[in-house]
Each structure stands twice: as structure tokens, then as C-alpha cells.
Design goal:
Main location: membrane
GO biological process, one term: sporulation resulting in formation of a cellular spore
Radius of gyration: 29 Å
Strand order of the largest sheet: 6-7-10-5-11-4-3-8-9
Structural class: alpha+beta
Helix content: 40-55%
Number of domains: 2
InterPro entries: SpoIIGA
Active site: 183
Number of helices: 9
Subunit structure: Self-associates. Interacts with SigE. Interacts with SpoIIR.
């Protein structure tokens, strides 16, 4: 069997470069492309070294560990032990996910399962077995792109989760508990009292709010609001002018709760004065949170 060392070197150079680049993207690091290229060159050289049988150390666990640690060190440097180990762990995770994805894709496309004589057996066909270089060239970009999108989605989700907090609101006998997003860009306040306003999805609260109030908020018609509302709810209503990113100006219906609490550091903490604004739009497309919190509520609660 003829193996071309230059082909092995170039293929591993491209794969190692993309893996290291994805590692730095996930870790939100910005090393130079030259450093990543030098690290990938070391990895490609290691793959070529394995073609020579006398270099048995490269086949051992310690040899693989040493070369991978050197690659990560060259790519991102050593700023602290914790940061370096996190980068190394991320590199291993990406390598395992990508390699496992290519292995699964190979057998998904090239294997057939057959039953006969009381036995079940598989036949590899099409792409060949073991995995061919042609398959690696075709499948690696697909698996790498999928891994990149998936890891980015997980990172974005984690970033959102870091800004979520449970919220509990009380109106007399009515108690509601929901998830809120801490938004430092929410600076909405009552222009007269300067009371901060949080935004909630009115659709989530339709079952506990008066029907007349929900209809008025949906239609934006306040003319007959006083006639259809119970007296105890009229004392809670505030009309707050606001300007959105896509509107010149509008009126937001806000309610004054008896109590609003935010779950922080393992316990419920009561905020100061706050208004609950009823928003007609869907605040979260996937339902992760049902309210947008004012940052001053968190500082008071903490």
C-alpha cells in the first residue's frame, strides 16, 4: 500500500487548523492565525511521524497527550493553569465530537443491515471501510460546520441563562411565578414617579387578569376601560408613555403589584416599588422567559 506523506500532511494541517480555530472561537480567544497555523503544522507533522514505525513513542497515550498539549500551548499560549486546561478540554471535546460525527456519518451512509438465517449482520458498501481519505475530505467540512453551529448555539443559550431569574408577583390573592430576563438596556420608568417598569407577556397573564383589561391592551383602546374594570383593579392601573425601537411612541398599560420578588442567591428577595407593564408582543420566541426585568430591580433585590 502506497501512502503519500505530503497528502497526509496537508489533510491533517487543514483539519487541525479548523479544530484549533473552532476551539478559540468557543473560548472567545483571539490568537493570531499564524499561531494557529504553527500549532496545526505541529499536528500535521505528528501525523507524518506516525508513518515511520521506529517512532513508537508517537503511538502511545503519552505521546498523543504531549503533542496535543503542545498544539494548544502554541495556539493560545499559557496565561494560567485553569485557562489552559479549559482550552485543552475544549480542544479534546471538539475533536471527539467531530471524529465521532464523521464515524457515525460513515456508517450511516455506507452500511446496510440484513437479516438471514436467524442472524443480523451488516455490510459496508459505497464509501469503503475503513474510512477513506476521500470520505474525510468530503465529510469533515460538513461535520465541522455542524459542530461550530451547535457549539455557538449552546454558548448563546448559556449567555441567556446567565441573565435569567425567577420572579414572583402578588396581587391580593393572586400569585404568579415566571422567568424573567435581566436586561440592562431596559430603562423604562414612570415619567412622574420614576418608578421602574418591567415588561411581561400579556398572553401569559390572560387567565388571571380581568377580561376587559386584556382586551383593551390587545386593541389599544382605553375609552371604555373604566366601565369594564373592577374598582380594585382601577387603582392599580398606570399609563406609561414609551418609545420602542420600531415605533414613534405609544402608551403602555402597567399595573402596581402588592409585592414583587426576585429569586437570587438561593432565596427570594423583595424589590422596591415597581410597575408591571403589559406587552402585547411575544418577548421570547421559544418561551424561555416571560418578562424583561429592569436592572434597578435586581440591584434593589440584591
Amino acid at each position: 500500500m502506497v501512502v503519500y506523506a505530503d497528502v497526509v500532511f496537508l489533510l491533517n494541517l487543514c483539519i487541525d487548523f479548523l479544530l484549533l480555530w473552532l476551539m478559540t472561537a468557543i473560548r472567545r480567544q483571539r490568537p493570531s492565525l499564524l499561531r494557529i497555523f504553527c500549532a496545526a503544522t505541529l499536528g500535521a507533522g505528528y501525523a507524518v511521524f506516525q508513518l515511520w514505525q521506529p517512532l513508537t513513542f508517537s503511538y502511545t497515550f503519552y505521546g498523543k497527550l504531549l503533542f496535543s498539549m503542545l498544539m494548544v500551548w502554541i495556539a493560545v499560549g499559557f496565561h494560567s493553569t485553569v485557562a489552559y486546561l479549559r482550552s485543552l478540554g475544549t480542544f479534546y471535546l471538539i475533536s471527539f465530537v467531530t471524529g465521532g460525527g464523521m464515524f457515525a456519518l460513515h456508517y450511516f451512509l455506507g452500511s446496510g443491515v440484513h437479516a438471514g438465517g436467524g442472524s443480523i449482520f451488516s455490510l459496508s458498501s459505497g464509501w469503503g471501510s475503513p474510512i477513506s481519505w476521500v470520505f474525510v475530505l468530503a465529510a469533515f467540512p460538513i461535520v465541522w460546520l455542524y459542530a461550530r453551529i451547535s457549539f455557538r448555539s449552546l454558548a448563546d443559550r448559556q449567555m441567556v441563562n446567565n441573565h435569567l431569574a425567577k420572579v414572583r408577583v402578588e396581587w391580593g390573592e393572586v400569585k404568579l411565578e415566571f422567568m424573567g430576563l435581566i436586561d440592562t438596556g431596559n430603562q423604562l420608568r414612570d415619567p412622574i414617579t420614576r418608578t421602574p417598569v418591567i415588561l411581561v407577556d400579556v398572553e401569559e397573564w390572560g387567565r388571571v387578569l380581568p377580561v376587559g383589561l386584556v382586551d383593551a391592551v390587545r386593541k389599544g383602546n382605553w375609552d371604555g376601560l373604566g366601565k369594564e374594570m373592577p374598582g380594585e383593579w382601577m387603582t392599580r392601573i398606570r399609563l406609561v408613555p414609551f418609545r420602542g425601537a420600531a415605533s414613534d411612541g405609544d402608551i403602555l398599560v402597567a399595573l402596581k403589584p402588592d409585592k414583587l420578588e426576585v429569586f437570587q442567591q438561593g432565596k427570594w428577595r423583595e424589590t422596591g416599588k415597581v410597575l408591571v407593564g403589559l406587552d402585547t408582543g411575544r418577548l421570547s420566541s421559544d418561551g424561555t422567559y416571560q418578562a424583561i426585568l429592569h436592572p434597578s430591580c435586581m440591584s434593589v433585590a440584591g
